[in-house]
Design brief:
Elements: E1 6-10, H1 16-27, E2 31-35, E3 41-43, E4 46-48, E5 59-62, H2 70-85, E6 90-91, H3 94-101, H4 103-112, E7 120-123, H5 126-138, E8 143-146, E9 157-159, E10 175-179, E11 189-196, E12 199-207, E13 220-224, H6 228-241, E14 245-252, E15 258-264, H7 270-273, H8 280-293, H9 297-305
Parallel strand pairs: 1-2, 1-5, 5-6
Antiparallel strand pairs: 3-4, 7-10, 8-9, 8-10, 11-12, 11-14, 12-13, 14-15
Amino acid sequence: MMGRTRIAIFVDGADWHTRRLTAAFARRGAEALPVSLSACGFGPEGPAIPGFDGGLPDACLVRTISAGSFEQVTLRLGVLHALAHGGVPVANTPAAIERCVDKSATAFRLAAAGVPTPRTWSVADPVQASAILAALHAEGRSAVLKPLFGSQGKGLRRLDPGMALPGPEEIAGVYHLQEYVGAADGGWFDWRVFVVDGRPLAAMVRQGDHWITNVKQGARCHPASPGGVLGDLAVAAAAAVGADYAGVDVIRAPDGRFLVLEVNSMPAWRGLQAVTPVDVAQALADLVLARLASVSPVSADARRAG
């Protein structure tokens, strides 16, 4: 391959994660450039990516996708699809990102692969949703109502027996309901397992002061082993959605079963990095460069030339 390897990190703002990734790529002799997908589009020759002199990056790592209207997000995903179609390695692939961003698609993929999860329903009809909730309440169970698109524990509602559903206008017209599972030993905690290239790289326990245990919601991070049943389950979950890397959230139910709650295809890892000696950014950079190494050098040089 001629010239220096150039990597696009798709992200909004040069944050802590971006700086770690840029340094990790530099240690491997590659130049990484942060680019917002909101600045990307299409021209007569195909995808237009700022900062690459009319050419394309050799490979891409997707950290975040800029929020926006349905049309804007569709365009941004379209750029990722076009890059992948043109032979540019993209991690995670746009297909994997779409499966994880849409919680109903994640639930379907996990169930189809036989990965154990809490019972989950996604419906648009309020009458159907009310019937599902009533059946759970009749069992003495609670439900968690989640935004179909959402992360970091935002917008979650726990619907205990006696509570009613909100109107469809409050939840963008889709009821994504998951059976509430309390932790096996009481209290509020679960695990985040970081999977990279088919292996459980690192893990942590997330302990909260309430039932939402996301770090962004104030949960405390504690070190945990990524191996054993926990790691195997996380790897299976990442494979089910086709993710090259993922943050997989796992809980142990009161009956002792480990269940997958979420699969995040664009996970942050600052909290995890604080409790693990593993360099997560370096593992991600190595993943992207390994994908690039499997691509024809001639094709990569042609992309660089534009």
